[in-house]
Amino acid sequence: MSDRQRLRVGIVGCGQIADAHLQEIAKLDIAHVAAVCDVHRDLAVQAAARFHVPGVFDNVDEMLDASRLDVVHVATPAQTHHDLAVHLLERGCHVYIEKPVAIDAPEVESILSTAHRTNRLVCVGHDQLFDPVWLDCRDRVAAGEIGEVRHVESVLGYPLSGQFGALVVSDPNHWVRRLPGGLFHNVISHPLYRITDLMPGAEPAVDAHWFSRGEATFPTELRAHLRGDAVTGALTFDTGIEPQRITRVYGTAGCLEVDFDGQTIQRRRQARLPGAFAKLETPWRQWREAGANLRRNLARFLKSDIHYFAGMGRLFDEFYRAVLHGEPAPIPGEEIVRVTRVMDAIFDQCRGSAERLPRPSIRPESRPSLAHSV
Amino acid sequence: MQAVVTGATGFLGKRLVQSLCREGVSVRCVVRRSSNVGGLRDFLGDDWRKVDVARTELTDFSACVDALSGADVVYHAAAGLTGSTSTLFLNTVIPTRVLMDAALEVEVRRFVLISSLGVYGTASLPSGSVLDESSPVEPEPHLRDPYTYSKVVQEQAAWEAWRERRLPLVVVRPGVIFGLERGVLSGRVGVQVGGRLIAMGGGQTLPYTFVENCADAIALAGMEPGLEGEVFNVIDDDPPTAARLLKMLRRAGRRPRTVRVPGALIGGFSGLYEWYHRYSRGQLPGVITRYRSASMWKKLRFTNEKARRQLRWRPEVAFDEAFRRSLQGPDGRQ
């Protein structure tokens, strides 16, 4: 594809996640990054230098005026997403927004209605829905391998000693700490949409609470139960366990355990053999499953197909193709609103069960500057 | 003299505070609002009574102005050490710009920036060259590791403030700082992969400085008159080669699981890794490149002559003793 045909992409916010965006876009023939922008010009400069981006800006409007962008990625703190996205849509850009898409459902609805009015597309960073291992799991569920889905369980292990976690802990004024859902607001959309993806119907009922572990002065653990029409869900966010991203899908005929970090799917089901033989059949089946996972990952490794942000790259590709061909965005607006409403319900309940922790102010004057980096 | 030290609770910072206290300097420690100063208090012992603590974020200009009020000298030791490039820029470059603005606002007499010996552009130097303060600074910092990149840009910002706004700047470039909490192995010896050390070469001299020696040199950089605009490399006398260091570790009963890449093969190995990183579109991270290898593991000679002459610095703890002290205690394990 020639440069004239490729979409011109801009990135606002050059923090850690912007690196992933730049890496994944660089793998696509369909688009290229023409400009980066951050209120801290140093951050925009480093991103441009490392990823060979020609345009460097510290002001969004100057970037838009100078760079003729088709798509802009918003990778700034969540408090800025709504205003930035609406502004970009009004200026004629299609917009990709990192998770969480906005502070709450009314903000999301406002963004989507602006997109509708301006005839632009909006995509949200629910990229794990496009991860190869999740797509494989969905295919197996659709093929009836585990029967009817009845329950989905998502676990996110998030030790606060990690790079980003340590930053959030050390700074009480960090933008993440000022979100209505605090630490959880920035990350639970991933495990949550892995549940709602297999939970059709209206918004599920929510039962949630959060609490602190150790000496933390803010909530660090979250547990949420969801009850949909036919499927229930359980979300566990825990800072006291190893880093992990695991989702278990339970059906009427077995369970699939999806390990995003290991890129494996383990099928579990009741043994067919009787009595003590079942104790041999179960590990035998697990051994064969492990062998199949090893063969699959080895083949992918040899094809250079194992990438942490593979889902993000695939989502970008589908979004850009939708932009080029005038098709709907890969993640429907109704689903974005549904996930956000569930998050709102979770945080409302958690705050209700911990009244000593008031909802932080999200008035405009308390928001971080536009184009701040994540 | 009133000194302000940023990063005072850190590995180097607390030794710097101690060194200044011993020189009779009044010290204000600037720490994050969330920092626990218990470790610093325990470390300083009786000297704790001589310091005061200002809690502020270095991204808050007016709070920095308050913290620096009345200061003669600022020692800027706070910096990010690990993380992505953007994280390091946020923790190193951005706060430095704010702190320099505050230092200019309150008109401090001197601003001592603790930089790094890594900022030199050693890839272009012939093997066997002497690296001193006149050696060129890295011209392609974005090709280096994230830490080095952030330190080069931090220095660029400081020199810009020196040239254009008359910041009374002195830059100290320590080599690899080692000591009890950090042990003695570093990236200059090799790369840690899955519990193994891939030792790169062995004949290269390690530009090491023991944390207490280094702190003394930095303290002097704020006290000796007439040094504005000067740079000082800080390396101890008689630094070891990588091979000698590993031998000393083995003799001390520490046996890091090591795979050695001979010096002659480093270029080829790095080129192969770099090729695969590109071929696989990043399936393995691009942590080893020919350029980084040429910058990191080249055989160079180092001198501390300028620091000895102009700062009148003498590294008090010899390497063998510093090595012994660095292995003591539970944190000395390799």
Characteristic terms for this protein:
heterodimer, A: 374 residues, alpha/beta, 7-stranded mixed beta sheet, 6-stranded parallel beta sheet, 12 helices, globular, B: 334 residues, Rossmann fold, 7-stranded parallel beta sheet, 11 helices, 14 strands, disordered C terminus
Descriptive report:
The complex is a heterodimer of chains A (374) and B (334). Chain A is α/β, with parallel strands linked by helices. Helices cover 40% and strands 20% of the residues of chain A. Chain A has a 7-stranded mixed β-sheet. The longest helix of chain A has 25 residues, at 278-302. Chain A is globular and about 75 Å long. Chain B has 334 residues and is of the alpha/beta class. In chain B, helix 1 packs across helix 6 (211-223), helix 3 crosses helix 4 and helix 4 runs parallel beside helix 5 (146-165). The termini of chain B are far apart. The relative contact order of chain B is 0.13. Chain B is built from 11 helices and 14 strands. Chain B has helices at residues 11-22, 38-44, 61-68, 85-106, 146-165, 211-223, 242-251, 266-279, 290-296, 305-310, 319-327, and strands at 2-6, 26-31, 51-55, 73-76, 110-114, 130-131, 169-174, 176-178, 190-193, 196-200, 208-210, 231-234, 258-261, 301-302. The longest helix of chain B is centred in the N-terminal third of the chain and has 22 residues, at 85-106. Chain A binds chain B through residues 14-16, 18-19, 23, 27, 40, 42-43, 45-47, 49-50, 163-164, 167, 169-173, 301, 304-307, 373, and chain B through 32-35, 57, 82-87, 89-91, 93-94, 97, 142, 149, 153, 157, 279-283.
